[in-house]
Amino acid sequence: MRWDIFCQIVDNYGDAGVCWRLARSLSSLHGQEVRIFCDDLPTLNLLASGVDPAIKDKIDIQPWEACYNNARHPVQTPDVVIEAFGCELPERYLAGLFIAPIKPLIINLEYLSAEPWIVDFHAKASPQSHGISKYFFFPGFQKEVGGILVDPIPPEGEKVAKQIPYDLKAVWAKLRSGAKRISIFCYPGAPLRKWLEDLGALGEDVDILLTHGHAELLNLYGEQPIQLPSNLQLLSLPFVSQDDLDWVLSQCDFNIVRGEDSFVRAQLAGKPFIWHIYPQEDRAHEVKLAAFLDLYLEEANQELRLATIAAMTWAMPSQWFKALDLWSTHSKAWRMQLLKNQEDGGLAARLLRFVA
Length: 356
Known about the structure:
This protein has 16 helices and eleven strands. With 356 residues, the protein is of the alpha/beta class. The strands form two sheets. Strands 3-2-1-4-5-6 form a six-stranded parallel beta sheet, with helices on one face. Strands 9-8-7-10-11 form a five-stranded parallel beta sheet, sandwiched between helices.
């Protein structure tokens, strides 16, 4: 089948990351024909860089406006249209669907959530005045909902550690033997400077891997650079592809992630993490975080539960860092549980079955 995926980038990387990973899964694992229409091609292409050309070349990546400028479009009406995260289809594109001899199915792909109510709304019809069938599709962790994107499944072991991506070799050469590794990819509102100062006061050797742009966020090179003890080493990563960031997460002892794509990949890496959830004015993000923690910590003891909740709500490391070994064990068990729940292929495969 032909799939058109519409992606409007709201938070720089997460939305594009999910759309690209979905397109890749549909194409490379399930043999589907996929086009992506995106309003920020430079970001999408950066995330997709470094992917095997045999995989990338099968996906037709187009600018947003090409969906109605392309003369081929009326001939190649898709079978399925994905509105990623509720973005509205361009009117001229929608008008082309009205006159198509066979109408496509429109899927409103929602944001990932652990909230219990999504079970009742997943896969429900969304009646439209234009008459084209449209449905809600909710990604989630429960078996009854849309699943998560598991492609590619991150491998484990020393073999992976030796496969250092080319763009990361210079940074990796500076890592200290025996030091813990923490990667940081968060939104500007995080109390990073204070968090790092508190971490440094614990006296443990830690190498901090700052993803692209975070050195500026911390004002490392400005008029008031951050002053940290020698047991902490800050290293700035270049902008890396989606696959390379997956690799970084797998090689760290602890990760701070944001958005949706890196949030899932941190869990599949089997490592402890802080999810810096996108802040919303109505504080709806707090409800979403609490719902996830209810699932994530369902099997945890009281010590781990308190430590994880403290970390996720930006308590200082001195308040929970001693529970890191316990958390690491839990993270590996959670990874196995996630993969078991996605044995049916996860989000991409569940979409295909639903459409069928």
